[in-house]
Amino acid sequence: MKHIHFLDTTIYIQDNTLHTTIYQKPTDKPSYLMYDSFHLDHTKHAIIYSQALRYNRICSDTSERDQHLETLRKDFIDRGYNPRVIDHNIHRAIKVSRHQLLKYKQKRETDRLKALRKIARELQGTLEKDNRLHTIFPDPPLLAFRQPPNLRKLIIRSSLSGPMNNGTHPCGRKRCKTCPHILSADRVQIPGTIEEYYIHGHYTC
Length: 205
Description:
Pfam families: HTH_animal. InterPro entries: HTH_animal. By secondary structure, this protein is an alpha+beta fold. Helix content is 37%, strand content 14%. The chain folds into three domains: 3-101, no CATH class; 110-159, no CATH class; 162-204, no CATH class. It has seven helices and seven strands. Strand 1 and strand 2 form a beta hairpin. Helix 1 (41-58) packs antiparallel against helix 2 and helix 1 (41-58) crosses helix 3 (83-94). It is flat.
């Protein structure tokens, strides 16, 4: 096999080198947003740009990329988009270096709720008028949230876990107060006897 399809990508070998290009199912039909919809213009333009950016990132050969972009251009014209708007956004996308697009972007995670910052500031005056609350909250409180476990987090891992050894082990969480006291062992001895029982399974605090 000299090529394989994965999601929206075809990976193939040419001159002993791996290449990638856009893959579309034979039954696929363009279903982009119609231009006469009531969405804001910048939303429609962003669709063109993001699609062209995806083509630029996936296609390792520029001539193949340009062929796919020409098909993309026709698809958008069929959906009622202005050719000048299409060309402008495609040109913007291909100006971005593919090397830059392939770099992994570290996501910054924050638990802060920015939308509530303004409300907290506006209510700070009310807190200051109360004798007790004014000492508890001398400054506006920092509002944050922690998302509870959900089905996605339970069944999907962002990284591969290491081997699961039998026995009891500390969980390693920063706030866990049980870790220092848990016995790390793969067997337990019955008090007053010489018998040992192996622990079948991986258990943490």
